[in-house]
Structure formats: C-alpha cells, structure tokens
Write a structure and sequence with these properties.
Length: about 625
Amino acid sequence: MKTKIVSALGFVLVLLAILWAINFQRVLGLNLYKGQYLYVLIALATAVVFITHPLFPNRPKLSWLVDTPLALAGILASLFISFDFEVLIDQANLYDFNWVGQFLGAVVIVVLIEGVRRSAGLSLALIIIASILLAYFATSLPDAISGRPFRLDSFLYKMAYLEGNILGAPLVIVGSVVITFVFMGAVLQATGGGQFFSNLSAALFGGSRGGSAKIAVTASGLFGAISGSAVANVISTGMITIPMSRKAGYKAETAAGLEAVASTGGQLVPPVMGAAAFLMAATLKVEYSVVVLAALIPSFLYYLALYLQVDLIAARDGIKGLPKQERPNPLSELRYGWLFVMPFVVLILGLFSFAWRPEYAALIATASLFLALCVFGVRGKRPSIAHLSAAVRDTAVASVGIILIAAGAGIVIGALNTSGILFKITEAIVDIGGGNLVGLLVLAALICIVLGMGMPTVGVYALLSTLVAAPLVALGIDPIAAHLFVLYFGMMSMITPPVAIASFAAAGLAGTPPMKTALEASRLAWSAYILPFIFVANPALILNGSSLDIVLAVTRATAGVWLVTACVVGYLGQPLLPLRRALYLFLGVALLLPKTVYPESFASVIAVVTLCFAIAVLLLEHFVYKPKTVFNS
C-alpha cells in the first residue's frame, strides 16, 4: 500500500516538475507564482518523507498516531499557502502580519525541520534550529557578530513567503532543474544505462593491470556525475565494484575507499556536477558554460590521481587485469548500447549549441533516450511502463530529500541574512584572513568539511556558498575559484572522518571497519585536499588566463599529480626508496605550486625547468623500469 501511495505521489511530483520545466502553465493561460509551485512540491515531499521515514519504524501504530497529524499539518499548510500565495506575499511586503499567516509559516518551518531530520539526518536539522536561535538572540551576541532585533511576526512572514528564504535559490533550482536531472538519471538506470556504463568500463579498462578497480573508478565517476548523491552512488555501484576489486587482489578497505572516492568525485564532474553547476551559475550570475569549463581541469586532475593510484598499486602488488573471457567486447557493447550515450550528446548540444535551459535540455535528452529505446531496443529488449514507473518512483524518493534540504538551507540563509548576522560573520572572517590568506583558506576548508556533513550535493553547496564563499570573494579570490573551493571541501565531508558517510556506506558493503575505510579513502583522495588551494592560487587551472598560461599550468599540474601520487603509493616502475621518494615529492609539489610563489624574474624559467625534469623522470621510469604485470589476456 505504501509503495503505491509513494508511486502515486512521485508521479504527481515528477509530472509537475516536467510541466513546470516546459512552462505548461503559460500554455493553459495560468499566471502562477513560482512560490505556488514550490509549496506544492514541499507538500508532496512532506507526504513522501513521512511515509517512507516513520518516526518509529518498528512500531507502526505509534508512528501513525504521531506522523499523521504532523504530516497533515505540514501538507495542508503548504497547500493553503500555495492557494492563497498572492494575499500572503502582499501582506509580507506591506508588513500586514496577521495570526493566520504567522501560524501557517510556523507550521511549515516546524514540519520542514522534522522532514529534514528524517531525510538528511540530525546535523542539518540542528543547523537550522541554531540559525533560528542565533536570529532570536542576535542582539545579545558579542558586538563582532551581533545582529538586528528579532520580531517573530516579521520573521515568520519573511521566512515563509519572501524570496531568499525558504523560497530561495536552492529550492528554486531544485524545483526547476534538479528534479529533471534526477529523472534523467533514474530513466538511465531503470532502462539499463548503469549496466551499460559498467560493461563499457570493463571492456575498456578491465584488461589492464588493476582492471577491476579501474572499472569501479570509471563506472562510479560516470554515474556519480548525474546521481546527485555520493552515498546513493556508492550503494548502487559498490555492490558490484567492491567485490570485484577485492577478488582481483586489492585490500578490502582499499576497494571500499576507491568506491567512496570515485562516487564522491562524480559530484565534481561536469556537465551536471550533482546539479550544483546550475545553482553555482545562478548564484554567480554567470553562464552555465562558464561554470562547466572552470570545473573541467580540476575534475580531470582528481580522477587522474585516483586512476594512477589504482594503476600503481596494481603494479606494486602484482594485481592483474580481468581474464579475456570475463571482459565484454567494447565494439559489441557500443553497438548494442550506443543509445545510452545519446542523451549526453543531446544534453551537451542543447546546453552549449542551442542555449536551451538546463531543465529543458534534460527533458529532451531523457525523451530522446526513451523514444530511441522504444524504437530500436537494446539486445532485443525495449522499455516498458514498469521501467518508467520505477524511474518515477526512484526520482520521487531521491528528490523529496533534496527538496526539503534545499528549503531547510533556505531557512539557514534567510535567518542569518534577516538578522544581519551573516554580514557580520563575513566581516569577521575577512578580518581574520586579512593578513593570512592561506590561514583563511585552511579555516574555510575545515568549516566546509564540518558543515558538509553528508548532505546531498545541492544542499552542501547551497549552505557553503553563502556562509563560506562570500568571505573568500570579499578578500579578492576569483568568485568561481572560491565557489569551487567550498564545493570541493563540502564534498570531502563525504569521505573524511568523523562524518564520512560515503566511506561508511562503502565499509558496510565491504565488511571493513568504518573508520579504517574512511582513513584509507582520505589517503586515496589526497588530491581533493590539495587541488582547491592550487586552483585558487593559480586561476589558469580553471581556464582563467592566456592560452599559454593555461597549457603550462595544466601540463605542470598533471606531471605534479603523477609524481605526488607515485610518492603516496611508494612505487613508480619500481619500489621507491626513501631518498628517491622524497626527491619526487619535492619535485611534484614544486610543479603543483603556481609560478607566483617563485621570484618574478625566474618564475617562468623555474616553471619550465621543473616541468622538463619531471617529464624526463617519468619517461625514464617508464622505459627503464617497465612493470611486468600490465595485461591479462
């Protein structure tokens, strides 16, 4: 019964998102406020979360007694607000606060906090409550972070009905863009796209040394780019990739760590970036293509470091690739599964060549995939209504948490903004970092890891872009570099102890100690802790600079990542003795540092000389010390 109700609610939610994306309300001649649509989404999300996350899972009758009135209150309040939105927003703008509007706002906030607690955990719920308490006691705080006097009636009206609060950019982007991309990913998965990408990865990389782990890295990265949740990606792909990597010879905690790092990194890969790219473009008020291009090189370096570790560990430990009889044929996979590549081609063409809105491009890409599969099929199989129904249900379950998290993040941002505390916090952080930019960046990184706390990508970025990125920009850091910086470290909360929920999920699948797995994942993801500092200091790595500067920066960073990765593993063609390891580490770090750290008169010379030396080292190690275990035929 619950499954049918969730499916029905999910169908309505996805249908509304699709109709809103194509502006169907205008076709019908309806002049609706965006807030009306968003409050209907909140009502649907509340219903699904309270059904799928009961208060007492083992005591259904008691849960029903508590959940039913609370859920009904939230649903009815949200629907009433949607129905009477124009009156309520006029009251808010005219400061005509009555008890009905205040009551509805209070009910929505309380139910949202509980919905966030159930869907995203206690951490974000506590952050929301803390932000409200900070606003309430704003005048009692120390002068450095004190704010404006608190008025309950004004606070409730602003939070519930005005833009920039519950109805802020995070929820707007989720309602207009994210749901359509989640639906695209769900359709791909339901129709066999996930299996195709796993098979293609196995066909392309399975035969090389450490092929099983390379399959895990590639497949998890590809699917993670559109999933919107690192944990969901770990669970969906890790069930296959972790046992495969362990069977090949990787340690259990290494196999689990690789899966966690690869799945988390998918959220940083263009063009989707777990839907954070669209919110970043809206926040920075730049073209979507600018964000995508800026994220391209850092994500390449992230996966290069991970791929090299997989390869060098395999060479060091003698781990061979998959036998030929266990590997799919790449041409056969492409011949039968090329249709699964088509939606990405349509998506990229739509976004960059035809300037379609992201949600519209996602819908056209999804529709083209489904229609093509219906016409041509894959290996004689065609999608059915059951596949579409499963995709809709998966979309609903994945989206409702993101909807409530985005609304909750809006409360945090709105409470701190309304009270004036956000400005004071930004001012205080700027004062702290005024004389020490590196110290400020380290502090910002730690704050991002703590505040990220396992939230979905959109929620992580929505919170951190306001609380942490603003001070960085105020200090003169390139805005896109600052926002990518907070996104990277927010996502690192997924694998960094003590939170590390992606690492813990992988540990559960591998049967390894959670903290040991999280520490291994942090080691494997070493580049993600370094790269944000590098592209903040060297904007050429986010394609901001002359062509020559960009080429030199990317080449040096690639060689630097290669050498540092070899030092982390302790192998480069042969086991690295301490002295050689230290020299290679020194050279790798020298390559990663921007030219600006060197004396200006010698900067270009040092940059070129270190690069030439690194290339010579890599070529020498490759040709002189060729490892024996390369392919398994």
